[in-house]
From TrEMBL:
<dbReference type="GO" id="GO:0016791">
    <property type="term" value="F:phosphatase activity"/>
</dbReference>
<keyword id="KW-0378">Hydrolase</keyword>
<dbReference type="GO" id="GO:0000287">
    <property type="term" value="F:magnesium ion binding"/>
</dbReference>
<dbReference type="GO" id="GO:0005829">
    <property type="term" value="C:cytosol"/>
</dbReference>
<dbReference type="InterPro" id="IPR023214">
    <property type="entry name" value="HAD_sf"/>
</dbReference>
<dbReference type="InterPro" id="IPR036412">
    <property type="entry name" value="HAD-like_sf"/>
</dbReference>
<protein>
    <submittedName>
        <fullName>HAD hydrolase family protein</fullName>
    </submittedName>
</protein>
<dbReference type="Pfam" id="PF08282">
    <property type="entry name" value="Hydrolase_3"/>
</dbReference>
Length: 89
């Protein structure tokens, strides 16, 4: 078991909004594995759940990628996250 502590108003959803505002980007891609990632997924243009993610997150994900043990996020970034490419195309 674990306990997460955050300042009031500090959420992953708010972080996505802040990053978009600070960078001027119109869209964000996010990655997650737990139910607490759901609000972040709802804010982003695309949200990818790792294979070992909670079923509730998988249900709303844009796609399912390899698990954390399979370096799913790294593999996605290597394929789609190259500088100068648009993963939304």
């Amino acid at each position: 078991e674990w306990l997460e502590l955050m300042p009031a108003g500090a959420t992953k959803r708010a972080a996505v909004r802040q990053l978009l505002a600070l960078t001027g980007a119109e869209k964000a891609v996010v990655f997650g594995d737990m139910k607490n990632d759901i609000p972040m997924f709802l804010e982003a243009a695309e949200g990818y759940a790792v294979a070992n993610a909670a079923p509730e997150l998988k249900a709303i994900a844009s796609g399912i990628i390899g698990s954390n043990r399979e370096d799913g996020v790294v593999r996605w970034l290597e394929r789609y996250g190259r500088r100068g490419t648009d993963p939304f195309k």
